[in-house]
Amino acid sequence: MVTIVVGTQWGDEGKGKVIDFLAAGHQLIARYQGGSNAGHTVVVNGKRYIFHLIPSGILHQGVECLLGNGVVIDPVSLETELQTLEKEGIPYAGRLWISENSHVTLPSHKALDKMEDRFRGKGMLGTTGRGIGTTYADKSARIGIRMVDFIKPEVFRAKLEINLQLKNYLFKKYYETDDIFQVDRIIEDYAPLAERLRPMVRDTAYYLNDALKSGRNLLCEGAQGTFLDIDFGTYPYVTASNSIAGGACTGLGLGPTRINRVIGVAKAYTTRVGEGPFPTEIAGVFGDRFRDLGAEYGATTGRPRRCGWFDSVLVRYSGIINGLDELFITKLDVLSNLPSIKLATAYELNGARFDRPPLNFQDFSSIKPVYEEMEGWQTDLSGIRAWKQLPVNARRYLDRIEELCQVPISTISFGPDRAQTLSRA
Ligand code: IMP
Asked: Are residues 395 and 307 in the same domain?
């Protein structure tokens, strides 16, 4: 059985918590794209854990975690997470695997990422600066360094020499900086990290497919969200990988016929970090209040997130692109104090109405959302243990989301802890 968990908005929908909630019924959890730009926050017994690369499922004993070929791996970031696991007494030997074909992020990728974004000037993307786009660019340019190369010292050196020759030329001649990278220095710093990772590196596609054949359940963990997808997102304000559900096939080596269930995660409102269009964004003091209510600060960069109303045009489109079977709504509690709540039902441009997002950036930046306003519930949700205990107006809000997005809501979350989650059943 293979289940994919995917973000339906601009990331930060609370997928870490969803994965953690579902982990118990699975033996394997795999990341299929992205890198340390992601930040999954999970709270267990009041303790807060943030992971950037390792699936949050690692907190569940008996679950194996895997980073697929579609993931880009910064060994320094991964090492920090391994040290956290060690400090917390969470064993990972024999239960954390890395694809031989995943690509390695080096300091040159991070430096170039920051430099490129600065040079974009007004067209700045506001990347996380984690070297994500530049690692994927090397992958496509066929000069990337894969994990299988990284763990073999002589291959790593040979590939690094070619890669840095090109990068240093760019740094010196185009960006006119003297900050160039030395092969020996990187090898000295990264060889011990390669040593540490070597026992975890394997042919993960074979491993996963064999595991499925023997009846084990796999949960595929998407990072970022549908509207940050390189093909279907608000290009160019997107990340550099396929974050949609289809990315699980190419990012893990799974045939499409293996996928059984796709769960879309949507926040009860909308947030976005970085630049790019955001039709339902709330500006000013009310937007700031929203940010504080939801503690909306990036788990990776600490940047304040932009906040806005729920946009059913986006989530409806996500339902189609991802083939969603169900929706998992998170952070419902954040809306609890509001006397009234808006949600976007359609868009308007030059007097015409649309029920789907425009695919060109110019139109996307100019459209205006059409809102519907609903009465809030103004009741604390923390004690809720059954669907019928939900305030009537909260149920109305959820029913309306379901109707507009044309995907059934299976589960809601109304607080950071595992216990603050409710399935509809
Ligand atoms: P990059 O992925 O670092 O190249 O950044 C590209 C865009 O994606 C920027 O707007 C980032 O803020 C955004 N982004 C990347 N990862 C995440 C995430 O995990 N959550 C939300 N936004 C993200």
From this structure: yes
Which letter does DSSP use for residue 417 in this model? Answer: B
* pLDDT value at 306 more than 90: yes
Residues 109 and 64 in one domain: no
- Reading phi first (left if > 0) and then psi (alpha if -120 to 50, else beta), residue 94 is in left
The answer on 58 and 69 residing in a single domain is yes
| Domain span holding position 227 | 2-99+203-263
Q: For the full predicted model, state whether its pTM sits above 0.85.
A: yes
Q: What is the CA radius of gyration of the chain?
A: 22
Separation of CA 200 from chain center = 23
* 332 and 319 both lie in a single domain: yes
Cα of 360 to ligand 1 centre, how many Å?
20
Q: Give 152-187 pLDDT, tens digit per residue.
A: 999 999 999 999 999 999 989 988 888 889 999 999
Is the CB–ligand 1 distance for residue 72 below 6 Å? Answer: no
| Interval 265-283: pLDDT, tens | 999 999 999 899 999 999 8
Minimum CA distance residue for ligand 1 atom 15: 37
Q: How confident is the model at residue 301 (pLDDT cuts 50, 70, 90)?
A: confident
12 annotated active-site = yes
